[in-house]
Specification:
Blueprint (H helix, E strand, L loop, with lengths): L4 E5 L9 H13 L4 E3 L7 H12 L7 E6 L1 H13 L2 E5 L5 H5 L4 E4 L7 E4 L1 H10 L10 E6 L7 H7 L4 E5 L9 H12 L2
Parallel strand pairs: 1-2, 1-3, 3-4, 4-7, 7-8
Antiparallel strand pairs: 5-6
């Protein structure tokens, strides 16, 4: 079934101004203007972020919606896909962000707006633990794009998490998927907008 509603979730310290988010927004506006597109700045609280996502997509048809998420956004996208039984594309997705982000408790700056900062609270780590989904109920609903050259997350951990899903395992690359434009056609084909 064609995707009529598309949600994009950015990563930790990222924003809708990331290269991937802007590329997808441009592609949607130019080639798929009929698709409802939503990409908002997520609050630092994982619980508040998912509450915001739920409110924003409450009236979306689950069978025709999809979610794309990068890094921490990939973890969130998995949570959304498990809740809504919708399709998801995860880009170098965080598998265990509670463990990985524990070292970032404290004041943080935004990548795309260094003058803006936020405080990553200890309670957010527990919120991430609470959002962990366990085994994927419908692994066929996922396309995972994973770069072996990811300098932030372990590609083997990502591959194991999405082993039963459609995988695009890239030799080299980086955490930001700097060559995302090359993979956009595969993403759009999977989403069937």
């Amino acid at each position: 079934m064609k995707t009529t509603h598309l949600l994009y979730l950015h990563g930790f310290r990222s924003s809708p101004q990331s290269a991937k988010a802007r590329l997808m927004a441009s592609s949607m506006a130019q080639q798929h203007p009929h698709v409802v597109w939503h990409c908002a700045q997520l609050p630092p609280s994982p619980l508040e972020a998912m509450e915001m996502v739920n409110q924003s997509t409450a009236d979306w048809p689950s069978e025709r919606m999809a979610v794309v998420g990068s890094s921490l956004g990939g973890f969130y996208a998995t949570w959304v896909a498990e809740q809504r039984a919708c399709r998801a594309v995860v880009l170098n997705p965080a598998v265990n962000p509670a463990r990985d982000l524990e070292q970032y408790i404290g004041q943080q700056t935004q990548f795309h707006a260094p003058e803006e900062s936020f405080y990553f609270k200890e309670e957010y780590v527990q919120q991430l633990r609470d959002l962990a989904c366990g085994a994927l109920r419908q692994p066929q609903n996922y396309l995972a794009i994973i770069a072996k050259g990811d300098e932030v997350l372990d590609w083997r951990e990502m591959q194991a998490r999405y082993a039963a899903s459609r995988l695009l395992l890239l030799e080299g690359g980086d955490h930001a998927l700097s060559d995302f434009a090359n993979h956009l056609p595969a993403v759009m084909n999977y989403l069937d907008c």
